[in-house]
Write a structure and sequence with these properties.
single chain; 73 residues; mainly beta; 1 helix
Amino acid sequence: MAKKDTAKQIQVFGPKDSYSLAEVYRFPRDGRKKAIDIVRGQILTVGKDADITETEAQRLLNNQTWEVKEVSE
């Protein structure tokens, strides 16, 4: 039986500071002019032709201001 290839996903939980009123995180993309707006509860697919690249996912996971975690499908 063939192994099913599942895409890696990350979920945005929102600002780490509980007093923050931020609703949107404007995330600058690697090598692209246009940033993407990320909101609380959003799930992003990681990959070459997905929502964000592996490098961008690592940047989000290491972000100091917003809580972002890898999730399973």
